[in-house]
Every structure is written in structure tokens, then in C-alpha cells.
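Whiteboard transcription, Tuesday session. T.W. wrote the C-alpha cells on the left side:
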């Protein structure tokens, strides 16, 4: 049975939002297929819902004190953990994910607001996303787009 890693490291625990809803709903739907084993990499404070507990193993990652620490962890430690956990595919539903690793990579790109309306996004976040989102998309085996603009701009 294949092992799918789920990179939820970008989700702070207990904070609802569109990307959290998307990520947890997609996990729920894929677990229902009953074809895979899952390793969920999530910050301390996350709990696997009871109905998913038989299929999803939680690996608690540090609470990150900022984006830079999370990105460094995601690019260095996460690939090593995934190798140890025998992950076949890493799914990163939060715009960016590891660019290295001996596993297939799938990423969801939600929007390009940082590029389309730059004055609405913190300049540091815009710079980070303009680099990491593109690198992740270009090294991914598949890119899921929940709007049309990311697909057109990143796949090229």
C-alpha cells in the first residue's frame, strides 16, 4: 500500500480558514477511498479526527516562530522525515512544499494575489511566494490549481 505524506506544516492549529478547510476536507475525501496510508506532518496542537485515526499517523512538527523557520524545516527536515516514513508521494496543499526529496510531489496553488495585486500583500510574503511557489510548482510532479491564473502562470 502506498504512503502519502501530507505537508500541513503551514497550518497553525485551531485557526480556521479557506486553506485549512480545503486541506482537511481533501484529506477526509482521500482517506474514504481506503487505498493508501497517510502520514500527516502538522504543528503541535493538531489532532487527527477520530474517524480518520485508523488511516492517518500524525507526526508533530515544531511550532514555527515565523515563515523562515518553517520554510527551512520544510526544505531540510521534512524530506528526511518523509524518507524515514517511506513516503511515496508528498502532498503540499498550502502553495509551497519541499523541492527536494525521493518522493513524488503534488502541490496546490491557491492564488497569485501577491503578483496580481502586490499592494495588498506584505512585501516579504510577496517575495517569498514569488520564489517558493514557483520553485515548488516547477519541481512538482503535479500542480492542483483552485483558480485558473496559477495554472497558466506556473506551468509555463
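and on the right, the sequence the group agreed on:
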Amino acid at each position: 500500500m502506498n504512503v502519502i505524506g501530507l505537508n500541513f506544516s503551514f497550518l497553525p492549529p485551531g485557526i480556521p480558514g479557506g486553506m485549512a478547510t480545503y486541506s482537511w476536507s481533501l484529506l477526509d475525501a482521500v482517506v474514504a477511498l481506503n487505498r493508501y496510508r497517510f502520514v500527516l506532518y502538522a504543528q503541535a496542537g493538531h489532532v487527527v479526527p477520530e474517524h480518520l485515526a485508523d488511516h492517518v499517523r500524525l507526526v508533530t512538527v515544531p511550532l514555527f516562530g515565523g515563515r523562515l523557520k518553517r520554510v527551512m524545516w520544510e526544505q531540510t527536515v521534512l524530506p528526511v522525515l518523509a524518507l524515514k516514513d517511506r513516503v511515496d508521494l508528498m502532498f503540499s496543499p498550502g502553495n509551497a512544499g519541499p523541492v527536494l526529496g525521493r518522493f513524488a510531489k503534488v502541490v496546490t496553488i491557491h492564488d497569485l494575489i501577491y503578483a496580481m495585486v502586490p499592494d495588498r500583500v506584505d512585501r516579504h510574503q510577496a517575495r517569498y511566494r514569488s520564489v517558493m511557489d514557483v520553485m515548488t510548482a516547477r519541481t512538482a510532479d503535479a500542480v492542483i490549481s483552485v483558480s485558473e491564473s496559477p495554472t497558466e502562470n506556473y506551468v509555463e
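Someone added at the bottom: The mean pLDDT is 85.
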